[in-house]
Please model this.
Amino acid sequence: GSVTEKGKIPFRTRLKVWWEGYDLNDVKRRLKEREEARARADAAAAPSPPRSADPVLPVEPWDSRRIEIAQFIWGEGYCGPGGPEHVIAMSKLLSLSPEMSAMVIGAGLGGPSRVLAQEFGVWITGFEESAALAQAGMELSVRTGLAKKAEIRHYNPKAPEFDRNFDRAFAKEALFTIEHKSHLLRHVHKKLKDEGLFLMTDYFLSRESVVNHPDYLEWKTKEPERPHPVPAGEMLEILKAEGFSIRVNEDMTPQYVSMISRAWAEADRVIAELMRQGEEGKQLVQVLLREAELWNLRSRLLKANILQVHRILAAKKLPKTMSNW
Model:
């Protein structure tokens, strides 16, 4: 077939990043074999891209198809890099035990919440801004018998209502979309018990000047939720101003980029599986391509040191009393 056939070059370009370290000629051969199926999928999707006219979309970027595709790529209960092993390894810093309770900010589909409950016995309440993710996450907790141990709730980060005190707090890439970070962190601090620990991983600007970089500006327009990242140093200052002391600040960008690459290396298998599912599967391939573009762009910014991913551990300082002066 000619390379000028409709859809072939963009499709190949978008896919290329997924096979780092794979033989590209082999990839092209496999793509060519599915050329006809792709053309039918493109034709089926062209008149009505999924959810594009949905007036709710700007507010609720997670529809049922995107939730399904996320789990195809990242695993059941996850909508981003880092599965159960990663969450367990990272959370060792929190010294969790069955006597403890923990709040999870940005709980997503609840995968991290459930693995913390199962691995450490801790009682989790997950708070998620997306109503669709929170509902789907709670359904997964119910299905796995963890409705009480790993509850997932919808919440509004602009007016958070945390109805109890917690021993620990955890946030996985949840704060970069929050504009007024100090407001939310003040509420987290208030609901942490004395000497409570708060562990977060998030996207940060490598330096303030990157906000003018063309790739950064492109990323801002393409993210489903408007991003508001700050430099890691600024986040540390916000945490300190709200009464936290910093225990750990670690740049984990290379590890994070590696997790993205490993997950998307399986995209070929996912596409093959979806193509066997008839019309619905073909429409899901279109959703997968949009998701791939998003992660390709994030990965590019991380590799170019425009964005970084840091792991930060903060502790709630004890109030000063006569006895500890």
Summary: The radius of gyration is 21 Å. The mean pLDDT is 85. Strands lie at 101-105, 123-128, 150-154, 166-172, 192-205, 244-251, 307-316.
